[in-house]
Amino acid sequence: MSTHPSPARRGGGCQCGAVRYEIDAPLEKIHLCHCRMCQRALGNAFAALAGCPKERLRWTRGAPKLYASSSLATRGFCADCGTPLTFAYHEAARVYVTIGSLDDPAGAPPAIHYGAESWLPWLQLCDGLPREATADDPRLRSMTVHQAPPG
User: Fold this and answer.
1) Per-domain residue ranges for the chain?
2) For 3-117, CATH number?
3) Per mean pLDDT, which range of 80-94, 98-112, 134-148 is the poorest?
4) Who has greater pLDDT, 138 or 124?
5) How far apart are CA 36 and CA 120, in angstroms?
6) CA distances, 114 to each of 58, 91, 130 (Å)
7) DSSP classification of residue 114
8) Which residues lie below 8 Å from residue 3, measured CB to CB, with a gap of 6+?
């Protein structure tokens, strides 16, 4: 997984401006996740995420509301406007910010697709990036999903 050089500080935040953050580290493990949980959490075909060490992400205005979407991870979003902001495994040293919440999302090109088993058949991305299924990650095999089932 590649690490992309970044400016000394990267900023980002939600669409209403109630929550802002700053990252003082290069972005790493930049990816698109097509798993069903990410699709539902972002209301989109996939999540675009960029990682950094948890201690290098600082909230400069407000703070996200957190939702434990599974037994393994928490997602952060703006309680005022609903913008999805973060994803973090409980036991990991890294947190992921949504690429769309970065002030300069063009500076965070993805390097891999995760959750390939849920890739929507009508989505055509000819980027040549590797694809990995959720079941390929042993940490996720025992996960309990906390999102409501369809219907």
Assistant:
1) 3-117
2) 3.90.1590.10
3) 134-148
4) 124
5) 10
6) 26, 19, 9
7) E
8) 26, 27, 28, 29
CB 59 within 8 A of CB 76: no
Q: Report DSSP letters for 18-84, one per residue.
A: S-EEEE-S-EEEEEEE-SHHHHHHHTSS-EEEEEEEGGGEEEEES--EEE--BSSEEEEE-TTT--E
pLDDT digits (tens, 9 = 90+) for 84-96: 999 999 999 999 9
What length does the chain have? Answer: 151
What's the rounded Cα separation, in Å, for the pair 7 and 52? 13
34-48 residue pLDDT tens:
999 999 999 999 999
Alpha-carbon distance of 106 to 115, in angstroms, equals 22
Distance CA(1)–CA(116), nearest Å, equals 17
Residue 98 Cα distances to 14, 32, 86, 125, 148, angstroms: 10, 10, 6, 19, 22
Tokens of 106: 């063009």
Indicate the SS3 state at residue 144.
coil
What is the predicted pLDDT for the residue at 138? 74
Torsion angles phi and psi, residue 138, rounded to 5: -60, -25
